[in-house]
Write a structure and sequence with these properties.
InterPro entries: GcfR_halob, GfcR-like, PRTase-like, PRTase_dom. With 212 residues, the protein is of the alpha/beta class. It folds into two domains: 62 residues, Arc Repressor Mutant, subunit A (Orthogonal Bundle), CATH 1.10.10; 139 residues, 3-Layer(aba) Sandwich (Rossmann fold). The protein is 35% helix and 20% strand. It has seven helices and seven strands, in the order αααααβαβββαβββ. Strands 3-2-1-4-5-7-6 form a seven-stranded mixed sheet, with helices on both faces. Strand 6 and strand 7 form a beta hairpin. It is globular, with a radius of gyration of 18 Å. It starts with a helix and ends in an 8-residue tail after the last strand. Bound molecules: 1-O-pyrophosphono-5-O-phosphono-alpha-D-ribofuranose. The site of 1-O-pyrophosphono-5-O-phosphono-alpha-D-ribofuranose has 17 residues, from helix 2, strand 4 and helix 7.
Length: 212
Amino acid sequence: MKNVDNLIESATELAGRGLSRGEIADELNVSRETASWLVERGGVESEPDQEPRATASPQDIHVDWSAIGRDSRRLTHVSHAMADLISKDDTDVGLTVGIEKAGVPLATVIANELDTDIAAYGPAKHQWEEGDIEDFDGGFSQNFSAVSDQNCYIIDDIITSGTTMKETITAVREHGGTPVGCVVLVDKQGLDEIDGVPVSSLMNVVSVAPEE
Ligand SMILES: O=P(O)(O)OC[C@H]1O[C@H](OP(=O)(O)OP(=O)(O)O)[C@H](O)[C@@H]1O
């Protein structure tokens, strides 16, 4: 089980390897604000030109679903529950797209359950090595189905900012597919839709902290 000390340690190590706060946020599945907080708690100085140090604990949470991810039977049960969220939809869906990495094993089970083909999308951040991440493109793996002319579900584990899901929706459309639903384990934004595509999640994270 990860606790905040583990997260601070991981964030400090990633910062030491030169990753930006945004990249650390992606790696640890937390918001950028939380990534900054974790790094600063680890004793690393703020990045130049960044907002002032966050002294209070931010309103983000880290979701550790490794108890599901490390056990194929649990993963299958949970994926069936995700499929159940969308299985009553009327739309004729022929393809389930998993977002690499964590979305793919979930999508594999969901595709089997819903009797669709399967595709795998690698987001741009996974191509990034150095320089501006905007200069990199994501892509669909050639080892799986093509998306053209298919109604598609898009599967991932977590929505944090929604950037990865939005990128995948755009990529599906650019490749001639039609995204008809996004399904995740946990939606930290509690979104109804992204770019006109309905979002379903097994769990939404809702902050009950009073506004500052
Ligand atoms: O909504 P966003 O702010 O875009 O963040 C959510 C994404 O971040 C994580 O991917 P990550 O690359 O960190 O991990 P993974 O490759 O293990 O799935 C997660 O699996 C989502 O794909």
